[in-house]
């Protein structure tokens, strides 16, 4: 854990500081942020529209995941190509960047858990749903897992059959 002047001597109140800051950040999120959401699928059953507070939590979760990925990419860019002999001279920087990445990743995981738990609390009928999604237009959907698996398998097999047909046609053309 990072020790700063603020948390060097934790008090009862400081133990909640991080969660309070996280909620404040969620409140400040603009609903105008561009977020990519997929279209509804045939196996999606519409439940409700996502409330604004949960939209903000989703957006913050997406921003945090992106930040985590950017930190990882920075590490790969800066240190991915250096030899093991050189790593010792950059060890402090590598450790700091790694710690920054781990904190961003754990924050993303926390936001993800908070988001999906909040969705299930807001919509108790989803408590036993094995798969829930958010689709374009901020639609909450309950996914029929069996239908989705069947469609995914059919799509996969269809691609394989197409590749086999295409390769047979290519072989027939080369024989002529």
UniProtKB/TrEMBL annotation:
Name of the featured protein: Uncharacterized protein
Species annotation: Candidatus Staskawiczbacteria bacterium RIFCSPHIGHO2_12_FULL_38_11
Species lineage: Bacteria, Candidatus Staskawicziibacteriota
